[in-house]
Amino acid sequence: MSDRAGTGPILGIETSCDETAAAVVAADRRILSSVVLSQLDEHRLYGGVVPEIAARAHLDHLDAVIAEAMREAGLGFGELAAVAATGGPGLIGGVLVGATTAKAIALVHGLPFLGINHLEGHALTARLTDGVEYPYLLLLVSGGHCQLLTVEGAGRYRRLGTTIDDAAGEAFDKTAKLLGLGYPGGPAVERAAESGDPARFDLPRPMLGRPGCDFSFSGLKTAVRRRVEELGDGLDDRARADLAAGFQAAVAASLVDRSGRAIAMFEESHGAGRAFVVAGGVAANRTLRAALSGLAARHGMAFIAPPLALCTDNAAMIAWAGQERLALGAVDGLDFRPRPRWPLDPNAAPSTGAGAVKA
Q1: What is the pLDDT of residue 201?
Q2: How far apart are CA 164 and CA 19, in angstroms?
Q3: Beta-carbon count within 10 A of 209 CB
Q4: Is the pLDDT of residue 52 over 60?
């Protein structure tokens, strides 16, 4: 099996949260298929993801999603080089469904199995879409994680900063709930902000000007809650739009400030002119992209953000991370243990906030 390492297509499986996804990606970066089945309708009633419902939905639909991905790719399992599945971090019930299914496919067809860190999938997506060279600076922003990392190679990450409380995506979701904008929160806040005045409400810019590269968003979320309480019955559509715009502007200012400090640290170690990559679900926000793109331009860095469809959870990123790891010979045994928490940089100091991951 080792003679096929890095030379053939890999089936990727992603089940870490509320998308059931499968994809086939070739070693030359071609995405041969990518199928994503959203569970939004199952969770909308509850205003957030219910882990038990998510796990059962993965169990119900994963086989069909994999079959569709293989049909779109026009391949049989015997033509694969390996099978890769998210092994964490994530909701452990869903992670178990995906990893166990991948192990079964690998066992039956005599293929290598790779347990992939979900965050590494996001981290390496820019290499799949744009062929970005190592090293590069990464801002990883999602519902559960907000980190700045130096990416030096597959499996080689150095964390420069992380959130000390809420992640940016979590703050978007909570703000959407406070404003009555519905679920999922990130896209809802962005839509409302399009017609809003970001200057109407004086909202804090968390950690602005502070030393280091860590983030904080709980105070901003609390400020939004207080404005909502002060408005009372005056929280009309105009106020919702203005609060959404003000919140979004505050997040953008925080991300730009923290990322600017990380760029300085990165350039001390790796020199100027490298790439600044933004990945994760929150990277789909156009306002944040524009602000971060401007920051990169001011520092003479190439700004790379994956296509919107590859910012949110998908299996193409898992298959590509599998390609990178397989090329290094980093194959996992069938005794691989999925985990709900899994740091990209296990040597980083522990954090108490969202995205604080333990081995």
Answers
A1: 96
A2: 27
A3: 7
A4: yes
